[in-house]
Amino acid sequence: MHRRHALPLAALLLSGTALSTTASAAPRETAPPRPLHILLTNDDGYDAPGIRMLYDRLTAAGHDVTIVAPLTNQSGAGTRISSAAAIGVRHPQPRVWAVDGSPSDTVAFGLCAVFGTHAPDLVVSGTNFGPNLGAMATHSGTVGAAMTAVEEGVPAIAVSTGGLEPPEPTRILNAMRPTDEFAVELIDRLRGRAHGGRLLPEGMGLNVDHPVVGTDGTGTARGTDLTPQDPHPVLKSAYADNGDGTWKVTVSVADSPARPGSDIDSVEAGRISVSPITPGWNAGPTDYARTTALLNGLHP
What we know:
This protein is an alpha/beta fold. Helix content is 29%, strand content 22%.
């Protein structure tokens, strides 16, 4: 059984005190650190409420933010990269680029064509409308965008709001505000611990899932957990033959309990889940040992 861990950023950066869930409790430095250059993206589209709300909050915190996000909704695109010889790009505002492609396309374009030789300090993907928990994260365009940045050597954070309960748009939109407050505090903590260096270790990003708390979604999360991704499928698809060469698809939430200490377990308890993520698909030492036993004596 996994044990739930309260999140001190020490767990990620080897030192520090517990990260609170309110900005007022965050430690402050005597001299204000320099603003961060942030590439802000998502999978809901460049003009979605979540990305615009987070843009306003990050900008209010003093950061230099540029939106490079999909032209249209690309939810569920994962880490897909387009192979076309050309890609459509719009530049509707000085700080906004809309790319006619996947979330990963937008990050690749942003790093190469918008930021060029001066990489951003951080890529932030979100705030996503709805959760990216458990196996959903594997297929998420929000997380896929963050992974693309990490692959390119740029620290990245994916941010989502919501749990596995039926979505209520007003509650989720309201809960994006405390989500954004937490994201800003987390970034402030990372910046303070970095002392002018990298915000996160090489090859690692963070997947943040914030619960919807309270009847209107404006409630405060009960705490913050450092969590692994629950390996169980979150969504279950059923198919029925329409008899005309098409099949009706019905998607529901899988009826399986959350693994204790996992990201799903944390959010279902009204807590914020923060999961370290890497772009590799490497299994753990136990899995390597089991595979070694399976392959023992096998020769070409």
